[in-house]
Amino acid sequence: MKLLSANVGRPRPNPWKGVGTTGIDKRPVTGPVAVAAPGPKGTGEVGLAGDRVHDVKHHGGPDQAVYAYAREDLDTWAAELDRPLADGVFGENLTTLGLDVNGALIGERWRIGPDVVLEVSCPRIPCGTFQGWLQQDGWIKRFTRAALPGAYLRVIEPGRIRAGDPVAIVHRPGHDVTVALAFRALTLEPDLLPRLLVADALPPEGLALARKRTERT
Q1: Do the beta carbons of residue 10 and residue 27 sit within 8 Å?
Q2: Mind listing the pLDDT tens digit for each residue in 182-199?
Q3: N or C, which end of the chain has less CB nearby within 10 Å?
Q4: What DSSP line would sit under 110-163, residue for residue?
Q5: Range of weakest confidence among 54-58, 79-83, 162-166
Q6: Please, which contacts does 79-88 make with residues 24 or more away whose CB atoms are closer than 8 Å?
Q7: Which of these, 154, 119, 135, 140, lies nearest to 188 by C-alpha position?
Q8: How far apart, in Å, are the Cα atoms of 139 and each of 7, 66, 90?
Q9: Exposure pattern of 83-111 as b/e (b: 16+ CB <10 Å)?
Q10: Element (H, E) at 34
Q11: How far, rounded to the nearest angstrom, does the alpha carbon of residue 185 sit from its chain's CA centroid?
Q12: 124/112 Cα distance (integer angstroms)
């Protein structure tokens, strides 16, 4: 398991929301990149130095400090879309190889290189900017049905990472809530929401939805 690339966004206009800027255009960085826990959501801060988010209402903050996507899943989409997909094109900060990102457990911890430890917090939920960026009509529905969302991560131990660093799973919690399961529960299969309650590393809004669903049943 290794890090294929660390990717940082280039600000560009966001015509898909009518106004503003987006950082979805992420490109691989040459050399080491500093990783640290960002400030609270709403500031635009994220985990990788030189990167930021611009839709501060929905992105950024400690629970969405770093976004990871597997090269294997990018290759699956490349075949389906019949187009090449470069590392970073899904807006991911980390493009991994040999790591089952969607099968990772909420609360699972990864060590990348000698210093950095990240914790899986929640799945990525697709938005209109993502659909517009890929220029694929109906992309949000298609991406959601596939349930290959990739994972947001918190920064537990800061440091530097670079392409080629090994990735090791250093902690797996004692439950069965994967990134893919959490994504399905939060999107098309709300009956699964009560299962998320055992994943206490899920962000508070996800746990609140799970509690609300449990109270109704």
Answers
A1: yes
A2: 999 999 999 999 999 999
A3: C
A4: EEETTTEEEEEEEEPPP-HHHHHHHT-TTHHHHHHHHT---EEEEEEE-EEE-T
A5: 54-58
A6: 81/134, 81/136, 87/4, 87/5, 87/7, 87/28, 88/5, 88/7, 88/26, 88/27, 88/28
A7: 140
A8: 22, 22, 12
A9: eebebbbbbbbbbbeebebbebbbbbbbb
A10: strand 33-35
A11: 16
A12: 20
In eight-state DSSP terms, residue 104 is P
Please write the tens of the pLDDT for every residue from 107-119: 999 999 999 999 9
CA distance 136 to 214: 36
Q: Which residues have C-beta within 8 Å of that of residue 53, sequence separation ≥ 6?
A: 9, 23, 44, 46, 59, 60, 64
CA distance 57 to 75: 31
- Residue the block writes with tokens 């106004």: 19
From the number of C-beta atoms within 10 Å of its C-beta (0-12, 13-18, 19+), residue 159 rates as middle
Q: Is the separation of the CB atoms in 179 and 99 below 8 Å?
A: no
Tokens, residue 210: 């799970």
Collapsed DSSP state (helix, strand, coil) of residue 3: strand
Given the structure tokens 């640290």, which residue do they identify?
36
138: left (phi over 0), alpha (psi -120 to 50) or beta: left
